[in-house]
Amino acid sequence: MVVSSVVTLLALGFCASLVLAVASRLLYVKEDPRIAELAEMLPGANCGGCGYAGCEAYAVAVLNDADVSPSLCVAGGREVSDAVAALSGKAAGSAEPNIAFRRCERLEGNVAPRYVYRGIGTCAAAAAVDNGPFQCSWSCLGLGDCEKACPFGALHMIGTLAVVDPETCTGCGVCVRTCPRQVLELIPKKGRVRIHCATRAKMKAVKDVCGVGCISCARCVKKCPAKALSLDSGRLELDHEACLAYGPSCGEVCTQECPRKILRAY
Question: What is the pTM of this model?
Answer without folding.
Answer: 0.78
